[in-house]
Design a protein that fits this description.
The complex is a heterodimer of chains A (about 850) and B (about 240). Chain A is an alpha+beta fold. Chain A has 29 helices and 22 strands. In chain A, the strands form two sheets. Chain A has a six-stranded mixed beta barrel. Chain B has about 240 residues and is an alpha/beta fold.
Amino acid sequence: MAWRDSRRSRQRLFLFMSSIVLGIAALVGINSFGDNLARSIDEQARELLGADLTLSWGKTIDRPTSQFLQTMGRARSYEASFASMTFFPKMGGVRLAQIKAIDGGFPYYGNWEMQPALAVNTFRQAQKTNRRIALVDDALLVQFGAAVGDSVKVGAINFLIAGRVLKTPGQAAIATTVAPTVFIPAKLLPKTGLVQPGSRVNYKYYYQFAVNTDVDALVKRIDPRLDKAGITHDTVARRKEQTGRAFDDLTKFLNLVAFVALLLGCVGVASAVHLYVREKVSAVAVLRCLGASGRQAFLIYLIQTAGMGLMGAVLGALLGSVVQLYLPQVFGSFLPVTVSTAISWQAVGQGVATGLFIAVLFALLPLLVIRNVSPLRTLRSGYEEDTSQRDTLRWVVYALIVLFIVGFAYWQTKNWKLAVGFTGGLALAFGVLTGMGRLLMVLVRRFFPVSWSFVWRQSLASLYRPQNQTLTLIISIGLGAFLMATLYLTQNLLLGRVAFSASGNQPNMVLFDIQNEQQAGVKALLAKHNLPTLQEVPVVTMRLTEINGHTAEAIKKDTALHIPQSAFSREFRVTYRDSLIGSEKLAAGKAPHLDNGMPYISLDKDYLARLKLKLGDTLLFDVQGAPMQTIVGGMRTVDWQRVQSNFLVVFPAGVLEQAPQFRVLMTRVPDTKVSATFQRDLVVKFPNVSAIDLGLVLKTVDELLDKVSFVIRFMALFSIITGLLVLASSVVISRYQRMQESVLLRTLGASRRQILQINAIEYLLLGALAALSGIVLALGGTWALARFVFEAPFSPDFTPLLIVAGTVTALTIVIGLFNSRAVLTRPPLEVLRAEG
Amino acid sequence: MLRVEHLTKTYQSGGRTLTVLDNVTFELQAGDTFAIVGPSGSGKTTLLGLCAGLDRASSGSVSLNNIRLDTLGEDERAAVRNQHVGFIFQNFQLLPTLTALENVMVPLELRGAKGAGRTAKELLDRVGLGQRGHHYPTQLSGGEQQRVSLARAFANRPKILFADEPTGNLDADTSETVVNLIFDLNREAGTTLVLVTHDAELAARTNRTIRIRGGAVVADTMSAATSITAPCQHPL
């Protein structure tokens, strides 16, 4: 019976089930991609590291340890890396880059992607011959329009650029956006003159072991020795786990975004099934007259919707399997491995099951009415008591829907708080959009502009006509617009925050690693370029060795202390002064001071909390060989976003003056031209001094956000398109009613133009209101983010918002008119035919 | 007022040609009242639709107020309907989103007439619904909805009124009221009336009736008891 009854409505039934296709496609696409990525990470695990084991350290290690490190492995490579200015003489470009001085056959697994490919061999030979050859990241060459064959100056040496590095094993391409790298032969490092006392250099060994060596067991054996020497390790298994976890989190987050698209589709399904049921009520009444029970009638339509839900889910799964083929391109520069694509049957199965279940769940709400349809309707067409009564089962369905959403979110996040938060956030967004939709209808009704033209009034009246789709469309299209607008606003907020710190007379360039003897020269150079010295800060590097008399080893054994080991492995960069600066506020205790010769230091409030410390605790530092006992005398809140020399630890004046130290200077450059000229002079005269230009930071943040938001925008697109699909199906489903009205108007003498105008204005209003509702929600959400998370002033740029609103509205009009074009072509005679 | 000549309408159905109207010819003068009767599926509604310019004939012509409808485009015919034609339907066909008053205003507003509200109010008063102007169709009874429909039909002072089973959905008492109103308004305005009905009593109130069967006119009766039997294919 379900099959026979659906014969004449299958096309329409399928149309509204198509609302879930994209949601399922997004879910299956992301899950398949996640599965493929996990498999690729497994297959290429060794390439993630480029070696079997890496050992890294930042401070000088003793000779026995150094000798021990050189006895391990079948092959090993040495690397010293640090940040320094690079200068491209041909173009005159200067930029802070990551310098990696390498010696050995790294990478042992995977390949450097290089242009030309042979440059890798040239570089390896140069390690032996001391030929001045460098390999440079593509991002850096592109920035300065440099090419292979040009030269790059690192410190005191000019290197010939032998190769353009497109990808380093285990490193996502995005990493070069943040810190582009110049690779040089390690033996030439001393000649650059860049490594000075106090310079922050990270050393590393890449090891390759004989096949079948149990590297994890080896590491476990030598771990205490490494730990004692402050050496950290990274194995293939560990890197695989870290990378896998990071992408697992990412795919789960994107799955939640895809799930939002699916939920939007389900709102469309519920609304369409509601209309369908209204049309079918008389048929149900006839069935009841003929002896069908309420349950039988209900099952007929439940089976129909389930069948179509299954088709929608299968189609979505198919589409998702195609979409996942393109996802590696969408993620592009974020991927550390080459992802091979194959159909993930597990993802397909999960997608189909989820789609079927949720479509039926949402369709149940309107379908429940069928159980109560009275046979009396066959005799009295106006009889409505049967469908208007309250049904307690509805609440059961609502509860099931909420449980399913929470359950799905938990399945993705494995965190109840997040799952409930996600559901709550979603409910809030749905609630706000529903509220706005309802408010709109009330306002239009109450303040109906009676003096406006008929065309406008007819369009406005359509917003609250019986069986209107206003709420459904405002929710589905509005949520899509909300996602898009929030992305734009958040991106601008973050950029604005960086830009804001550069406004006024704030410093916008930081010069660091200035040796004591270079101080006067650098200041003179600043003066020569008419640049002010806004701040001058001494920096001393040191390490923490004891907390309240406990060493790192003791703290590691005593788990009750809960002090993170990172406190002992980190190299602290510390300054000394007796007062706080503009970016700091005293949170408790006093500013750094000396009391009876004992230094009372000040710590960042959050860092103090992380180390589980309190005022009065004692800290023993190792200041480049000399022990120094201190007491925590105060804590400060620090605005880390300000371009200032901010420090976790500040010592009082009078104790560190004689320690080896370097200086940091801050200045303000008026424009990029002055900045470039100054940096060129700086790198020539003081090659070891590095400059961070806020303009560059802004550019880097912008590029990074651009790439991140592209991925999220891609996912938001599924929501937008689902919204438009819901629009298309609701237009088609309500076409009968529209047709009736339009045909009647044509009978009464309305021209095609007038009908077209009425329809266009209705879709204009729906699209614009949905987009505006989404944008208002986005403004509210981003304001809350700005106020409570970023603590930044919120002054949104309305241009992109207008573009979002305009695009969404235009799409709504086009799709609405395209689907209702039949209304314009129907002859008015139908008004008589409808009489029966 | 209305001249119908050799009007034929055919449809293609399942690969064969179905003739719904076959060579119908008649002419009506201004102020005539005219009924089209016949069994279901005989072609009554098709004939009414063609006469009102709601559809195009396969052959033959329809002239309304000396305007040849078959030569006009859809929008031009819409303009003719708006200026010269009024309609009453069995199911009332009121726009559910508009009040009674607004429904009556629609034909006036479509042509951009001024004072639409005032005219509509007068017409509602005339049909006895002056106090119900702000009610929506769902808040009105069937008889009241048909009276609103009647007021709307006369809003543009039409030259000809087409009524398709105007009492088909009404009880006997309400039917009587509505029919009286139709004839009264018709007489007052000097409008030509074309009725499609199953109701012999109602047909009898017109001054001419044609009976259709199988798409052809089988009888044409004048109220003065003049009767012409089929085939009737020439102007009378």
